[in-house]
């Protein structure tokens, strides 16, 4: 082309470019034809020029990343339309088509983000129109299809097509195909090849679906017209078949990948594939010379398999699987069961509705936690059932004119509205029709109606239609032709299968109702379910699925909305719990023994996997007991057959993998009892334990259970219920004795460690006294103890651990007897204080006289073997005084231990000997102490002498500078702690003589004035020296400190337990000197701020004892000129105590009470200088201010503080005037309404009970007991205090009483003025706020 022609062409192209922005697309063909005719330019020349110009435009837009406005979009559309019009004029021009594809179409597809998707479709449609007109499908097949298949493959991480793919799009194949185009289009092969790797997957999939759709339309057009264009028909058929095959393969791969890949499959590929398969059930394709049949039946089966795998994954995968099924069913419905296929093909067609897994997944989706999944499942179900439209009552095709019906008397306004709504839905006419059986379709419509109503939050629709429609479903569910028979079309099924399937769909409605957001709907559905008369429907309760009962139903029982009256007036029951128990009894009564036992195990195991509230746990316990009654009604001989419990249930449900079903049942029942312990109300726990015990007695024979498991179960029951006077003692005994237990009591210990043996022995001792009902039953046990006790030293050489196990058993037996004696005493006090007997104070079958006789026999036994036990303890404890070399080899469990309980840093052999020595000393101490307390005239002088000798040897032993030696000294102090407790509990003149006898070598007799000084000071010096050496590990040092304070508490308790609690001894000497007690007090105060959690109680008790000794004048006042506790001592005490309190657990009742009774000691509270000095707060007032301020964050602290302070103020009215501000704060205080933990800790924790009893005497014990757990306790305590002070002001008596009366009157006036001033100030502040708002 010469220069003139070039200028002319440039002018035409420029004019056309401007025209393309203004001329409509429909007018472009005519305009181009006019230009060609008028100018004489050939179509090819014009096409080439336009394409070059357009290619430059695309390049500029891409490089500059321009955003296209509407005029530029119109320009692109017009340009593409013009180029395609010119291509049609060429006819079959391969070069022109290829140049358009590579220079225009592919670059435009790459910049598709810059314009709308509709524009992409228009561009593609223009291209495919050219290809269809010119029959150039071969060009498309050879170039464009492999290009975009490669792009999609690279997005999936594939670099080469697979063998099953019809198209080859690997690097080598594409590279070879581009060789001929490189020179023609001025593009290198690498840049052309790289384009495919940069296309987004959605664009590649979209273009491929457009190509397949165009090929399908062309193939159908050619086939219908029977065109003679054999070549075109061949290319069209080949392209359509091969591309459909590859897209099917691609869909399968994409569905198994990420969310983006699955979205492309669902949004692009599957719709066109289903459309193609809708007209062609099978196609023949040739892949590398081999012929295959592409069948939609095979493809649908593969898709269904992929959907099943997606259902097993997360929520997103489930939603995609439901989307695939929706597409499939929409195609299936549109083709009416593949109606265009012949009979043979149709018979072999895959129908997903015939798959049971399909219906199961629909049911799972209908109760899914996500709303979109439920909607998808419902849509699929309605599509399958061919149900459309909104909620309409089945059986009512059109609305009738409103008729007036009589309104029953007594209907509430809510029921009247529900009845009106029912009439609008047509429910009234349907349910009042005489004979109107519903067909399958109408039953499904009833199900859909109820389901859609439950998806709404409101209650009006549910109240209107639920009862009517559900009754219809239940009525027709028991028939052979119920609505689920649609699922079993073409299959022979048992009637029980059809019935179970029907109830599996009805349970979907119940589950949705139990989990509904509206509590009123939840109540309505639960009430409806529990009100079903199952016998009316042929007793079909057994058809309800077990998964529903153990899942949604039990979880629904845990909903507090169903138990509004639960716990009111002490009644831990509700109508819902009663109804649930009835249902479970009926449900299990029709299960065979094997199924019933397995069901009960699963039912009780629910407590392991679900957190229950108070009402929920009670409901579970009631259901367990009721179900056990249903199962327990079967033949007892059949109950525990070998196959009564399936092995697979044991493996799945029991983490301990017990080999026996009875063990597994008892284990899960034990867990239910453990769960009740988080609810501390004793009557509530009693009721739960009673139900669980009833189930255990019905299901388990005690003789068939290993003793270890049985003892674990019994130990789980709270002691208050099974000890003497306990409500469950008689039932427990009947269960145990009814099984004629023959367990060997000797083999109750295992070989793991000492703690396990002690726990096992305690459980054994508790079970022993539950079983024994007479003295004669104790004879074998007494013979066993007698034989072992006498020969304990001889057995040492034969069975290494047998003596230790025996001593642990003996200690546990003594401990259990002491607990029972305490229970007897407490029960007697309760009965004396109250005229009536509560639920927990039932009369026990074993009377007190017979129990005393049994204890007497045991007492005689221990006295008989005590001498042998002392000899064994003496022999075993010799290791404490033996010389030990440094331990060089520690066990691996010690060297590699991180955290957990502190372990002895000794070799295994040494640890064994140490533990034996500790246990032997503990056994001698506890047994001798109980024997002395049981009978006061028992002669145990040799035992006491041995124990005091052990004390002196321990505190006088030299300090070791090696870790092994220090560990042995620590073990000696561990053994000393129970020895001192035993010595303190049995203090007598003989004990004091033994103290002098052992101490006479340390000081001349004429200088001994304070007999306990040398004991205490020697003890402190020895143990402090051991601590100062610093060879013990940090955790072991903490253990030693704990033993120090425990022993010190026992030493300080000796004066308080002296005979008659006398001030001086008979010879005029005292217990402690002033200097000794102050030294002890100083050591305590200095250590308080660093005390460990376990040392808090013994340290605070020691402080209280020390202050009491100073104040009671049990001191050598002649030696010291100081009289009592001074302010400096108290300031040190309150400072250290406050640091201790801040760092301690504020929910420990014992430690808080001990702190109050120790610091605010009654002996120092009388000293007014402790409250106010020089118009500044004294130590006690400072402490009270801080405690009350901190108590605003701790309800327990403020209640205990109020209890103690009101008692002190009532005893010392003269101190009240210093605490007006604190009294006002207590009066205004409010906190949580009820604290069950507080009451439970008082009943279950003996330390807490003892410490609370030592607080200040309450002004009114009855009111204290009534209000201690309420937010009103603080203000009630203050009110009672001033009520008592008013009575005190009216007393007339001695001079001291008159002073207290005046102090009471003065404090009353001051407090009244304080309250009036507060009210006046509060009114002024409120008035000021109102004025500011105005």
TrEMBL record:
UniProt keyword Methyltransferase present: yes
Classification via InterPro entries: ARM-type_fold, TRM3/TARBP1
Annotated GO MF terms: tRNA (guanine) methyltransferase activity
Designated name of the protein: RNA METHYLTRANSFERASE
Keyword Transferase in annotation: yes
Single Gene Ontology BP annotation: tRNA methylation
Entry keywords, A to Z: Methyltransferase, Transferase
